[in-house]
Amino acid sequence: NAGVMQNPRHLVRRRGQEARLRCSPMKGHSHVYWYRQLPEEGLKFMVYLQKENIIDESGMPKERFSAEFPKEGPSILRIQQVVRGDSAAYFCASSLTATNTGELFFGEGSRLTVL
Amino acid sequence: DAKTTQPPSMDCAEGRAANLPCNHSTISGNEYVYWYRQIHSQGPQYIIHGLKNNETNEMASLIITEDRKSSTLILPHATLRDTAVYYCIVRVKEDTGRRALTFGSGTRLQVQP
């Protein structure tokens, strides 16, 4: 049973370009969460999605960031017009149900470097 | 979710038990204690959770005091690979508010050879 799969594992972008990070949850999981971890800092919640719906985006920056989790396919975190401050590790997690959201399964992360 | 307090760092000798404390004095009756860890550069890993009874799995044991105001995560025979940041999180299990898990600063455990 494959775990949470994230790709790419490493992504380099120049300022102003777009970054797309993908997350395939564990089989059977329909709840996806995105977290960001800046260098030497803690994990910060960004957005919580359930198939085709955004449940909580309170941690998402208002500009340039968007997330989706379509009916078919992986969840996508999209960062437009990247800046150096977007350089971070982005972790995706999934859970089986909405009633056990304390037990999350995380991917290995996507590391974005903005030059 | 109830606030938790953890020491910022701890050391442990390899092969010895690592006992990681967590205070959660404002915990509510329906809130569980969850533990995660994050090994350097990896994704966080769920370890264990409990409500009021002590719990044990293949990774660790969780001891919750009778008044539930504090708990201890025990790694019975720490190895170098257990060096990580350990997070104690308190929250309801069935979150009808549908809020995501939030991580604090955790305890940085360094297992020494």
Relevant terms:
heterodimer; A: 7-stranded mixed β-sheet; 4-stranded antiparallel β-sheet; 49% strand; B: 113 residues; mainly beta; 0% helix; globular
Provide a descriptive summary of the structure in words.
The complex is a heterodimer of chains A (115) and B (113). By secondary structure, chain A is mainly beta. Helix content of chain A is 0%, strand content 49%. Chain A has no helices and eleven strands. The model of chain A has no long low-confidence stretch (mean pLDDT 92). Chain B is mainly beta. Chain B is built from no helices and nine strands. In chain B, the strands form two sheets. Chain B has a five-stranded mixed sheet with strand order 1-9-8-3-4, with no helix packed on it. In chain B, strands 2-7-6-5 form a four-stranded antiparallel sheet, with no helix packed on it. Chain B is globular and about 40 Å long. The mean pLDDT of chain B is 91. Classes of the chains: A mainly beta (115), B mainly beta (113). At the A-B interface, strand 5, strand 9 and strand 10 of A face strand 3 and strand 4 of B.
How does the SSE layout of this entry go?
The complex is a heterodimer of chains A (115) and B (113).
Chain A: E1 5-7, E2 10-13, E3 19-24, E4 31-37, E5 43-50, E6 53-56, E7 65-68, E8 75-79, E9 88-95, E10 105-106, E11 110-114
Parallel strand pairs in A: 2-11
Antiparallel strand pairs in A: 1-3, 3-8, 4-5, 4-9, 5-6, 7-8, 9-10, 9-11
Chain B: E1 9-13, E2 18-23, E3 31-38, E4 45-50, E5 55-56, E6 61-64, E7 70-75, E8 84-92, E9 107-112
Parallel strand pairs in B: 1-9
Antiparallel strand pairs in B: 2-7, 3-4, 3-8, 5-6, 6-7, 8-9
